[in-house]
Amino acid sequence: xxxxxxxxxxxxxxxxxxxxxxxxxxxxxxxxxxxxxxxxxxxxxxxxxxxxxxxxxxxxxxxxxxxxxxxxxxxxxxxxxxxxxxxxxxxxxxxxxxxxxxxxxxxxxxxxxxxxxxxxxxxxxxxxxxxxxxxxxxxxxxxxxxxxxxxxxxxxxxxxxxxxxxxxxxxxxxxxxxxxxxxxxxxxxxxxxxxxxxxxxxxxxxxxxxxxxxxxxxxxxxxxxxxxxxxxxxxxxxxxxxxxxxxxxxxxxxxxxxxxxxxxxxxxxx
Length: 270
Ligand SMILES: O=C(O)c1ccccc1NCC(=O)[C@H](O)[C@H](O)COP(=O)(O)O
What we know:
The protein is an alpha/beta fold. It has helices at residues 4-22, 25-34, 41-51, 75-85, 103-112, 126-134, 149-161, 173-179, 202-207, 226-233, 244-247, 252-259, and strands at residues 54-59, 62-63, 67-68, 89-93, 117-120, 139-143, 165-170, 186-190, 216-220, 239-242.
């Protein structure tokens, strides 16, 4: 049975083929070179995690698992609210068919703030990596569940060659062991199973201890409260990627401040 990841891969490859036919690689590379220089995404998270939490706050209008999440959707205003609330970095969904995202949302959010920005999309082809830089992305996401080792290494190197960081996303032990063979310091543990949509923080609790010490854990998905962050911090996660729970709040800046409000010193074990 085909899953959402299979369906996304099919339409992404069609999209890319069309874009390749309409935009020359030389033009795309020129646009990537002309884009604002990359903001250090991994560095910002590392710095934040030395004395507190690193927060990647996600600009997410809708999702396959939840449908419409936020009707009042203004990416530059949301970016400013996240920055005012203390986010370290932004994640912006650019996939249209499944998330109601758009490339323009990434550029608009990036322009509105000084925060490093992740292009949250489904990448299979180095062409998309160059396109991400042209869209001002400072970091790209690689999902191990939908890439083989060779593809992941090729996409990672393409991103590094353009000065971007890479968030490698895993959901189980086998994917984590494959991610550890790559170079990126950022390992995202997605608490959401992208096939069944089941979400459990046990995924981070289970996998965190297996992450090599020189990597930075980013716990992703299903995070709602300061206690969730404090809980996963006990397992070694210092960075968090949060979308829905912040997007559903009318006052996004206040919600961002609130989720970061439980100080590390009060948590013990850190
Ligand atoms: O969110 C989904 O339904 C989804 C479905 C299929 C593939 C990816 C999906 N989400 C991407 C993400 O991983 C999340 O947007 C991100 O981790 C934030 O999660 P949340 O805080 O639960 O919105």
